[in-house]
């Protein structure tokens, strides 16, 4: 498998490229609109064909590159069916699978940060979007977020994976690249070491986070797949 992690510094967003070595088919997970040339250069350099762009959720902090990639490469835009994004090409649900070459990328519905969050599992890795972050998790105070739902999603869909599954999050604000399910299950500050749902809800209700700077422009753009 070909694997590449990209970083967009303004929103601290990680974008992931996965490709099948034999068929040279690729997917991008959470592409950022401003970074299209970076992805295009990498695809050309590695002689890859982009089949799909996957958004883990409707982002509030950056604009998705889904539509720009679709126009340039003819790839399909993939989102959860609860996203309310009508311009998608493929609407997935829990345990839907995307095939590229011999690789199957399995969707796991992990709502709670938003009502349409999806994580993707493939080859000992899980791409968690903003559901599970390294030593944290996505906020639950916007976009139909719900702390109780997020707790259940993380426990049932993510902490049930093997301990050595590598966690690749949608963001990290401290330069960390990845974690593991075992590490997060034991040591995540909000969820680790058997923290109860009641404790988690208490933590999430006292974060006192500022209003998301870009939400008023990013959400309408992302509901249009990132079209200007
Ligand atoms: Fe998010």
Percentage of residues in DSSP E strands? 25-35%
Bound molecules: fe (ii) ion
Number of domains: 1
Order of secondary-structure elements: EEEHEHEEEEEEEEHEEHHH
Give me the side-by-side strand order of the main sheet. 1-2-3-4-5-6
Major sheet attributes: 6 strands, mixed
- Multimeric status of the protein: single chain
CATH topology: Metallo-beta-lactamase, Chain A
The CATH C-level class name? Alpha Beta
Spans where pLDDT lies below 50 across 5 or more residues: none
* Class computed from helices, strands and strand pairing: alpha/beta
- β-strand number: 14
Mean pLDDT: 97
CATH architecture: 4-Layer Sandwich
What's the end-to-end separation, in Å? 34 Å
Please give a structural write-up:
The protein is α/β, with parallel strands linked by helices. The protein has one domain: Ribonuclease Z/Hydroxyacylglutathione hydrolase-like (Metallo-beta-lactamase, Chain A, 4-Layer Sandwich), CATH 3.60.15.10. 24% of the residues lie in helices and 28% in strands. The protein contains 6 helices and 14 strands. Helix 3 (147-158) crosses helix 5 (197-204). The chain starts with a strand and ends in a 5-residue tail after the last helix. It binds fe (ii) ion (FE2). The site of fe (ii) ion has 6 residues, from loops. Residues 12-171 form the Metallo-beta-lactamase domain.
Question: Which features characterize this protein?
Answer:
alpha/beta; 6-stranded mixed beta sheet; 228 residues; binds fe (ii) ion; 6 helices; Metallo-beta-lactamase, Chain A
